Each structure stands twice: as C-alpha cells, then as structure tokens.
Amino acid sequence: MGLMDSLKQLLTGEVEAARELKDDLESSWSADLDRKEADLRATPSEKIESLQDRIDQNSSFFGELRARMAETGPIPQIDGDTPPDARRR
Questions:
Q1: Can you say whether the dihedral through the CA atoms of 76, 78, 79, 85 is positive or negative?
Q2: How far is CA 52 from the centre of its chain?
Q3: pLDDT range class, residue 82, cuts 50, 70, 90
Q4: Could you give the CA distance from residue 64 to residue 31 in angstroms, rounded to a whole number?
Q5: Which of 31, 46, 67, 83 could form a disulfide with 42 if both were Cys (CB 3.0 to 4.6 A apart)?
Q6: pLDDT band at residue 41, thresholds of 50, 70 and 90?
Q7: CB within 8 A of 76, min separation 6: which ones?
C-alpha cells in the first residue's frame, strides 16, 4: 500500500466522520427548532404544563444529586473537611 493510498483511506474516514457529525447536528437542531415552534403555538395552559414538567425533571435531578451526596459524604475541596494526609505539603 502506497503513501497515496494510505492518505486517501485516512481522508475518506475523516469525511465519513464529518458527515456523521453533520447529520447528528442537523437532527439535533431540527428537534430543537420543532420544540421551539411547538412552544410558540402552545396555549397558556400548555405552556404552564410544559414548565411544570421541566420543574419536575429538575427536581428529580436534584433529588438524585442529593441522594448521591448523602451516600458519598461531603466533598473535601468544597467543605474544607480534607483529611490531613490528603493536604498538599
């Protein structure tokens, strides 16, 4: 396999990766646009329901975070509870 064949194979792989990234971005942006358009068409009661759903999602996220922190204990760098042997010398 010559140098040109290796270079062509490398560039072909990069082009395929770039196409996949472009497709992923397009689908993500399209979904975001659809969501924003739906928000614009929503009635006030639908907007309130949507906001309540977001609040519930955030509450569950923070609940999981609190539970995880309760399991692992305080974070030494933030709480100042760094054990003496873990401090820089």
A1: positive
A2: 21
A3: low
A4: 27
A5: 46
A6: very high
A7: 82, 83, 86
Please, what is the Cα angle at 9 between 8 and 14, to 5 degrees? 95
Instruction: Determine the Cα angle at 30 with ends 24 and 35, to 5°.
Output: 130
The residue type of 48 is I
Query: Does the model's pTM come out above 0.90?
Result: no
Decide if 83 contacts 76 (C-beta within 8 A).
yes
**Confidence check: pLDDT of 71 > 90:** no
Is the Cβ–Cβ distance between 18 and 26 less than 8 Å?
no
pLDDT band at 88 (very low <50, low <70, confident <90, very high): low
Q: What are the residue ranges of helices labelled H in the chain?
A: 3-41, 44-72, 76-79
